[in-house]
Specification:
single chain; globular; seven-stranded mixed beta sheet; about 270 residues; alpha/beta
Length: about 270
Amino acid sequence: MAITITTGNFKGGVGKTTNAVMISYILSKHNKKTLLVDLDPQANATDLLFTTMEAIYDIKPDFEETLETALISGNLQKALVHVKDNLDLLPSYQDLQGYEKYLNETFADDYTQDTYLAKLLSPLKEKYDYIILDVPPQLNKFTDSALVASDFVIIILQTQERSLTGAETYAEHLINLKDDYKLGLDLLGVLPVLQQNGNNLDLDVLDDAIDSFGKANMFKQRIRQMARLKRFDRTGITDRSKDINDIRVMSVYENVVNEIKERITKFNE
């Protein structure tokens, strides 16, 4: 049965999508069958993985239905894209912008709307070890649908004041949603990203985050600013390269994934 994780923050541009993709990618390299669900109509996660498929694996992305069509039909299977060994994608497309309208016009109450995605993902949980959901940085039906479908949340925290505010608001919403719907949903941790070496402001924000969330809820691994991550959007994820910059990125995310596994083990204990 898949462990389902949403990555989020109510502040945009904090590296949420990049981290969702990299976590999924490394999990697949650990021989864990992984599904990335791109619930953001901007489709940045989809673009990155499609670029990787074409540039690195020489595979043309192909799917029978868009995610929006599959959501409406009630069967997500036809929207699945096989990216590489152990990694599949439910890709976003421009028509996904109509998902909220579909929910509002089809279901009368918030609970039925917010649990709809969870019901559709349920059959897929038997096929995967992990399902990672990437959502927009806003409070909307995409976010609530993902959270209701999830076992855990990783809050992505850029070491910047507005990102910290977005992270704190996200955590408050998580608690409220958990209480309202009696969810078995937990905060897996806060992952600091885009940290600048030696920047006092970044360190101050980290200290404030520790005060807000507690040291135990902060990931030990921190993602410092790495130009190679930006390059992946153009080149695809060049994990098979012997370039020291690629090796460094992969090593950092190996540590992130290992810490994710450790944290899940502690929750299960």
